[in-house]
Amino acid sequence: PKIWKIALLPGDGVGPEVIAATKSVLQVIGDFYDHDFQFSEHLIGGAGIDAVENPLPQETIDACLASNGVLLGAVGGPKWDGQKLRPEQGLLGLRKAMGLYANLRPLQVSPVMAHRSPLKKEIVEGVDLIVFRELTGGVYFGDKGRNDDGSAYDVCSYSIEEIERVSRAAFKIAIQRRGKVTSVDKANVMETSRLWREVVTRIHAEEFPQVELKHALVDSMAMHLIQRPRDYDVILTENMFGDILSDEISVLGGSIGLLPSASLGSGGPGLFEPIHGSAPDIAGQDLANPVGTILSAAMLLRHGLGLEDEAASIEAAVAAVLAAGATTADLGGELGTRAAGEAIIDAIRAIHWAAAHRVQ
Ligand code: NAD
Ligand code: IPM
Ligand code: MN
Question: Would you call 140 a catalytic residue per the annotation?
Fold first, then answer.
């Protein structure tokens, strides 16, 4: 069997619970397809602060860079609020250390999931979009601090190169999809947004004229995403707007617990994580939906390891389980985190059994 090194970063809150469920799914996939997935676990976030007073130990960075792919649960929680060391610094530092400038957050709303959304079924059914979020620039990584007069500041800056590389990556993905990019900014107010618009427009004209490009302002975009989400294909945007819009679109699919993400750079291993946080309100109670993390593992197999069949098999199993209504409480079901993971494993076995026996 082929050996793959997968670094697991459970982190905080529901992180360890969703990672445990996902690890079991990957082990079953490894058995079926004869891959030797070698898992290692490392500290990040609050767990790192508690154990070694560091939200991002060097050992974790080294192990992630030496892996074939990283799977992360979540970081943060009220326990560490107001302290000098913040769990979130660990995640931001890791994204930067691994050079992960492109964050892909896909959402597809199946007919079965459409009735779970608080929005009308006819608005959300068939939504198929991807938020393409710049991940290592902008206000997240600019200078921040306090002045002597008590005021505070966060600087937002973007270089031309930072905008160019993420735009290229988004246009490339659009070509494999429906060929539409909506670039979202606040060019009526922010200088970084005016540069963003200029650079995206130029990369489009010079390198990807076959793609349809539209620009939108983030405020009205937030509204249109709720009014007519089916109009969108690839939504390209800067770090902070992408963070906010991706939680917004999670409502279209019925729960934030469903959405996966892939963070990719140029060449090295990627980082895969659900878009949700540590969900302190439900942590430690076997209540969290593991689907976002399990679908992130599918993205790790596809984008990180090039294992398309294995990824598709996980996605088919998740779709089957959701269609059968076997869900956690966030989607109105009765399964716990572990049982939801096991339901997906059962579905993987059933799909393989059917394929082996050519049963439809
Ligand atoms: P959150 O995403 O943790 O939770 C928002 C709401 O969604 C909560 O009601 C929660 O119970 C629910 N939810 C989230 N994940 C769920 C799941 N898998 N199944 C069912 N319900 C789920 O956002 P928050 O409460 O604003 O943030 C809590 C902490 O998480 C903060 O410390 C924040 O910094 C951190 N955070 C971390 C990440 C990350 O690690 N990538 C992402 C977002 C927030
Ligand atoms: C996310 C989270 C992170 C972000 C936090 C925890 C730093 O909200 O991954 O969406 O803002 O990027
Ligand atoms: Mn977020």
Answer: yes
**Catalytic residue (choose from 185, 186, 232, 233):** 186
Location of structure tokens 């107001």 = 82
Distance (Å, rounded) from C-alpha 210 to C-alpha 181? 11
Distances (CA, A) of 114 to 190, 208, 254, 255: 36, 33, 7, 11
- Per the annotation, the verdict on 180 as an active-site residue is no
Q: Is the ipTM of this complex over 0.90?
A: yes
* Residues near ligand 1 (Cβ within 6 A): 14, 74-77, 88, 91, 256-257, 273, 276-282, 288-289, 292, 330
Residues 6+ away with beta carbon under 8 Å from 202: none
Measuring from each residue's beta carbon to the nearest atom of ligand 2, which residues come in under 6 Å? 75-76, 88, 91-92, 243, 275, 277
Nearest to 309 by CA among 248, 351, 256, 354: 351
Residue pLDDT tens, the chain, 360 long? 689 999 999 999 999 999 999 999 999 999 999 999 999 999 999 999 999 999 999 999 999 999 999 999 999 999 999 999 999 999 999 999 999 999 999 999 998 889 889 999 999 999 999 999 999 999 999 999 999 999 999 999 999 999 999 999 999 999 999 999 999 999 999 999 999 999 999 999 999 999 999 999 999 999 999 999 999 999 999 999 999 999 999 999 989 999 999 999 999 999 999 999 999 999 999 999 999 999 999 999 999 999 999 999 999 999 999 999 999 999 999 999 999 999 999 999 999 888 888 765
Q: What is the pTM (predicted TM-score) of this model? A: 0.97
User: Which sign, positive or negative, has the C-alpha torsion 255, 256, 260, 264?
Assistant: positive
Structural domains of the chain sorted by starting position, each given as residue range(s) with its CATH number in brackets: 1-98+268-360 (3.40.718.10), 104-258 (3.40.718.10)
35 Cα: distance to centroid of ligand 2 (angstroms): 32
Q: Which ligand is nearest to the CA of 19?
A: 1
